[in-house]
Amino acid sequence: MRNLLPILLVEDDQVDAMTVERALKDLNVTNKLVHRPDGEEALGYLRDGSSKRPCVILLDLNMPKMNGIELLKIMKADDILKKIPVVVLTTSRDTQDKVETFGLSAAGYIVKPTDYKKFVEAMRTINLYWTLSELPPNGE
Amino acid sequence: MRIGQKSILGFIGIASLVGIIGVIAIKYNTNVALDVDRILLGNSNEAKAATEINYHIQKIQTNINKLLFERIDERPEQKKHIKKAIGASISKLQQFTLLWEDAIKLKIELSREEEKKETEELKIFKNLKTKIDDFIPLVNKTVALQQEQSPEAAGSFFENKVEPLLLETQKTAKNLEKSTREKVITETWEIRKAVSSSTAIIIISTAIGLLAVIVVCHFIWNTISNPITKLRDAVDKMGKGELETKIQINSNDEIGDLAQAFNDMARKLKESYASLEGKVQERTDELSAANAKLQKEISGHSSAQGKLQQHLKQLDCLYGLSKLIERPKISLEEIFQETAHLIHNAFQHPNRTCVRITFEGISYKTDNFKKSELSQYAKIKVHGNEIEAGAIEVYYLGEKAENGESPFLKEERDLLDAIAEHLGRIAARRQTTERLELLRNLIDRSNDCIFIIEPKWGRLLDTNDKACASLGYTREELLNMTFKDVEQSIPDDSSWQGQIEELRLKTDLVIQGQHRRKDGTTFFAETSLKLVSQKKEDFIIAIARDVTERKQAEQKQTQPIQELERTNQEVENIKQELEDFAYIVSHDLKAPLRGIKTIAEWMSADYADKLDENGREQIDLLSNRVRRMHNLIDGVLQYSRVGRIKEELVKVNLNELVPEVIDMLAPSENITITVENELPTVECEQPRIMQVFQNLLSNGVKYMDKPEGQIKVDCVEEDGFWKFSVADNGPGIKEEHFERIFKIFQTLTPRDEFESTGVGLTVAKKIVELYNGRIWVESKPGEGSTFFFTLPKQEMGVKDEKLVANIIS
Questions:
Q1: What is the 3-state secondary structure (H, E, C) of B694-747?
Q2: C-beta atoms of B595 and A91 within 8 A
Q3: pLDDT tens across B721-748, in order?
Q4: Inter-chain contact A22–B602, Cβ cutoff 8 Å?
């Protein structure tokens, strides 16, 4: 990313989270990875005044307590939070999920590759894209 | 004497007066003219004087000549005579000169205009007079000279002195005479003119006077006499009774007012007269109406007598007919026959009348029936029908009347019509009665229980025999009950109302319930209710059938059916559960697998240097097993998906689909896949048929053991099915495995040798059997295998008539 803002990863599976972390490390991405295991905690983080607003959110869909779609809905309803780009990162190939995701104006939908190498490639692409794409200045 | 006459006379008088005055004036005028003439004549005295003067001058001249130039001395007598003559002439000269002078002076006095002329004339005359005055003494001197001296001296004196003067005087006198005479003529003319013009004036004025008189006369006539005459005439007319008279006098004077007053009076008179007349007319009308009535009554009475009799006869006839109808058990035929007789007797001359009634092909005659020329005829129409069902004919058997009159009375005609209508009604009623009886019979003998129910409380209005029999009640008992007492499923009023409401909405209703008999037992009954709306009220017809047997049969039937349905339902549920299960499970099972795989990879990556060969091999195996697990799960998922998703049925052209599949497989160069024949177009779900070919072909490729691999795809038609074949020259399959290979997860080689999910054929089988086809294999080990599968040929009802040209997976 072009800035040093954190990346928020909302993911319940520990291994998947580790995978993301590892991949980013392999890519030498310097942004801090903030990991929250479910939607509620993620919201908590986002709404906390002291926390830095993430530059991008990687969101898993299948999560306990509050799944990705619900969190997405809440975020997009919030004037401030809706500006944070959300990339859905999920195992689900389900059309319905895709429809709902894009219906809620997510910035992307990426199916987690099973192969680690491919996973890294996907992360690289995300990193490249969000380095290229600009974000509104913080606080707006 | 009339005003008119008086006025006329008066005006005539005036006219006459005027006329007389005129005449007198004219006369006077004429006198004046005469006087004037005389005066003028006086003027001619002038002329006369002038003539005389001229004459006498001449005479003097002559005489002097005689005196002087003839030997007058020889005739003394003559000389004396001549002298005397000369003297006379001279005195005459003087006389006439004076006369003339007087005349002239008088003229001057009388006239005023001609002053100048006169003065001129006077001048000339004065000149003449002077000359004459000079002349006379000269003459005297001449004469004296002659006497005293010699004639020659006188003569020379005369010649020298007298003659010129004489000539001058003569000339002057002559001129004067001439002018005088001319003047006289002119003046005479003028005077005459004046006279005549004054005469004219007088005449004109007289005429005008007369005209004026006439005008005034006329005026008076119009203004007074004529209107008054008119008035008189009008009054006369009015007196004679002509009240319409109006006087046309429009003048604005007293007479006009009178005329107006007269008109008003006439109008008022007219009005009152008219109203009077009107009243009289009314009265007259009333009277005449009353009179007419009276007359009618009187005439009516007489004819009434006759008519009365006739009417009586007809009444008798009608009465007879009504009595006929009342007779119990009388048939329609008897009625017609009797009616024929009744009609016969009702006519004026029964012994000369005969009757025939025809109805529905049968005729009923009186005994004396015979057709004739004179007849009456009335149609019988069954009441409510327009078709002519019969007729009444009446024939007159007597002679034709001489005057061509009909032997039938108007009343008889009316009677016929009345009877015809009556008969029509009777016939209709009979028909209706018969029909009702028929209906009643049908209802009673029906095998179903029929109830007529009143809608509000469900009271039974009528029941048929079967109902009574089924329920064990008498009809009387039933008619005291309500439907609720019978039908168990309607226990109370509110449920009955509910049924009625439903019935009103639907008009027809079928109730499956139970009917209760008198003895308390019940039986299954199917009741159909129908709401019938009549003008005044509605009622319900209920037809109930004992369905006990049917119910039992149904029970037997429904049990297995029900069970079947239940089983079906269960099966469906299980299927659904299974599918959901498969989906979720595969999905959820995969997640930890991924984790395992990832960590194994990391471990392999991170700790490779810390592992020995065994360790590395183990981790490889770990990864491998994880992969296998993943594939198996995918296989299960695939298998479950086969039945789950319903795709569109489209016409798929396999000639295009199969090559695509082959392309996607991308077999290695040593393997050739060919399509032997033209493949048909089938109606199926495109992804599925694709899956089948894919699985079969990929198997053929995967298991190919020969260096030159050949796979052939073919299709034939057989028994209404398409039989497809995929034949390879691969390793072949042992017969004992022919069934097994289609089972799920079954592989012929251990997985460690050959990675395979063992799901491909299972999926293909499932798909083919979904279409009611079959799949099997024929093979010889070492020679290759041929997989067959069939698909039915018939149309399965494609949703859209699309031909799938491009196959996109």
A1: HHHHHHHHHCCCCCCEEEEEEEEEECCEEEEEEEECCCCCCHHHCCHHHCCCCC
A2: no
A3: 999 999 999 898 988 889 888 887 778 7
A4: yes
Question: Would you say A66 and A39 are in contact if contact means Cβ atoms under 8 Å apart?
Answer: yes
B706-B712-B715 Cα angle (round to 5): 155
Q: Are A119 and A24 in contact (CB under 8 A)?
A: no
Whose tokens are 């002291």? That residue is A50
> Could you tell me if B587 lies within 8 Å of chain A, comparing CB atoms?
yes
Cα distance between residue B466 and residue B473, in whole Å: 10
- pLDDT score of B608 more than 60: yes
- Residues B459 and B480: their CA atoms lie apart, in Å, by 7
DSSP output for B329-340:
T--HHHHHHHHH
Taking CB atoms and an 8 Å limit, are B599 and A13 in contact across chains? no
Residue B328: CA atoms inside 13 Å, Cβ hemisphere, count?
0
Contact B212, B79 (CB under 8 A): no
Identify all chain B residues contacting A16, using CB atoms and an 8 Å cutoff.
594-595
**DSSP conformation class of B446:** -
What backbone torsions phi and psi does residue A5 show, to the nearest 5 degrees? -75, 155
With CB atoms and an 8 Å threshold, state whether B602 touches A116: yes
Among candidates B164, B156, B169, which has minimal Cα distance to B129?
B169
The answer to whether residue B339 scores a pLDDT higher than 70 is yes
Q: What is the pTM of this model?
A: 0.36
A64 in B contact zone (CB under 8 Å): no
The 8-class DSSP code of residue A52 comes to P
**A27 contacts A123 by C-beta, under 8 angstroms:** yes
Min distance A48 CA to chain B CA atoms (Å): 31
Cβ contacts (< 8 Å) between A14 and chain B: which residues? 595
Tokens of B41: 């004549």
- Taking only the tens place, the pLDDT of each residue in B84-96 is 888 888 888 888 8
pLDDT, tens only, B224-259 = 777 778 888 888 887 787 767 777 777 777 777 888
Dist CA B105 CA B777 (whole Å):
195
CA-to-CA separations, B369 to B199, B299, B374, B378, B394, in angstroms, rounded: 123, 37, 13, 17, 9
**Distance between CA atoms of B461 and B609, rounded to whole angstroms?**
106
Tens digits of residue pLDDT in B432-476:
888 888 988 888 888 888 999 988 888 999 998 888 888 888 889
Cβ of B601 within 8 Å of Cβ of A116? The answer is yes
Please state, in angstroms and rounded to a whole number, the distance separating the CA atoms of residues B268 and B274. Answer: 10
pLDDT digits (tens, 9 = 90+) for B652-708: 888 999 999 998 888 888 899 999 888 988 888 888 888 899 999 999 998 888 889
